[in-house]
Design brief:
binds adenosine-5'-[phenylalaninyl-phosphate], BirA Bifunctional Protein, domain 2, 342 residues, 18% strand, alpha+beta, single chain, seven-stranded mixed sheet
């Protein structure tokens, strides 16, 4: 076979290989095989100089022509194969931006926490400091220092969870009053939110519940200051139009003791069938009073020089009233269907 015939054979082979190549990498293999450094056609070109002079022109011309043709075919085929590959890739990577996104669960603040935040914010705005105390409390702070000595019947009124060795789960946030006064000199202005525990369980009582304690001790504080402060707080939490009233009450660690009612923020007393106040026109909100001089003496404050007022409220009950929730136990069951409503 002459060189020219072999070149023709290689040309045909290469062109048909190009035509049947289905991908850019197939085409690259075809290129290497027919035009690469050790391809047969390349070898033929390199050997031209060893041919007799009269043959050189014909073989040179034929090999150049074949090379150009194969290059042209490769180039053309590459364009169309690359375009197809690009289209396929784009189709595979396509994102339908109109599809709905993955839904995610949004958290929300617990109704009690909303009330706690509002009350605490209000007092912080007045210049009160936030104080905290332990939930496992000693008998001394929970009772004795609050003027409830061992054996006193007032202890029985709070259904206490007793722990070992004189420890209890605190039944109210009032022990934080004592801890605060023992740790600083007057004047004192603190609010103390926290969890409290009693052996109670019915629609308006749960074994764990929140309280917010407040304590102010300074020179010249009176019941008027207490009433004014709590009235402003009630307006902040329940709306500008609410009125407040004090009723006499009894707590061992205050004298006099009072309970504070707020006018029904739903009906203002005008609806005998009101679901919030049950027609009474008033809602009981918290216990309060002037700090008993015996308590001030116990922490080393001079009751001749200082007076104080204290109050303790149940933000869970306040949230029940505000959101019209009939059973307090719902608050602590962690049922998302309930919690997502807030
Ligand atoms: C006290 O606990 C007093 N320490 C409050 C106080 C502080 C009076 C300072 C004077 C001076 P009482 O037992 O009434 O008071 O509870 C206060 C509030 O806690 C109640 O009005 C109620 O809202 C809430 N509370 C009491 N027991 C429960 C319970 N088991 N579940 C939910 N809330 C409760």
């Amino acid at each position: 076979m002459t060189a020219a015939e072999r070149i023709e054979e290689l040309r045909e082979e290469a062109l048909s290989a190009v035509a049947s190549a289905g991908s850019t990498s197939d085409l690259e293999s075809v290129r290497v095989r027919y035009l690469g450094r050790s391809a047969e056609l390349t070898e033929i070109k390199k050997s031209i100089r060893d041919l007799p002079p009269e043959d050189r022109k014909a073989v040179g011309g034929a090999s150049n022509k074949a090379t150009k043709e194969i290059e042209g075919a490769l180039h053309e085929r590459l364009e169309s194969v690359a375009a197809t590959e690009r289209e396929e890739r784009l189709r595979a990577e396509a994102v339908d931006v109109t599809l709905p996104g993955t839904p995610y669960l949004k958290g929300s603040l617990h109704p009690s926490l909303r009330v706690i935040d509002e009350v605490v914010d209000f007092f912080v705005g007045l210049g009160y400091r936030v104080a905290e105390g332990p939930e496992v409390e000693t008998d001394y702070y929970n009772f004795t220092a609050l003027n409830i000595p061992p054996g006193h019947p007032a202890r029985g009124m709070q259904d206490t969870f007793f722990l070992d060795e004189g420890l209890v789960l605190r039944t109210h946030t009032s022990p934080v009053q004592i801890r605060t006064m023992l740790s600083q000199e007057p004047p004192v202005y603190v609010v103390c939110p926290g969890r409290t525990y009693r052996r109670d369980s019915d629609p308006t009582h749960t074994p764990m519940f929140n309280q917010i304690e407040g304590l102010a001790v300074d020179k010249g504080l009176t019941l008027g200051h207490l009433k004014g402060t709590l009235a402003a707080m009630a307006r902040h939490v329940f709306g500008e139009d609410v009125k407040v009233r004090l009723r006499p009450s009894y707590f061992q660690f205050v004298e006099p003791g009072v309970e504070l009612d707020v006018s029904c923020f739903r009906c203002g007393g005008s609806d005998p069938n009101c679901k919030v106040c049950r027609g009474a026109g008033w809602i009981e909100m918290l216990g309060a009073g002037m700090v008993d001089p015996a308590v001030l003496t116990e922490v080393g404050y001079d009751p001749e020089e200082y007076t104080g007022f204290a109050f303790g409220m149940g933000p869970d009950r306040m949230a029940m009233v505000r959101y019209g929730i009939p059973d307090l136990r719902l608050f602590f069951e962690g049922d998302l269907r309930f919690l997502h409503q807030f």
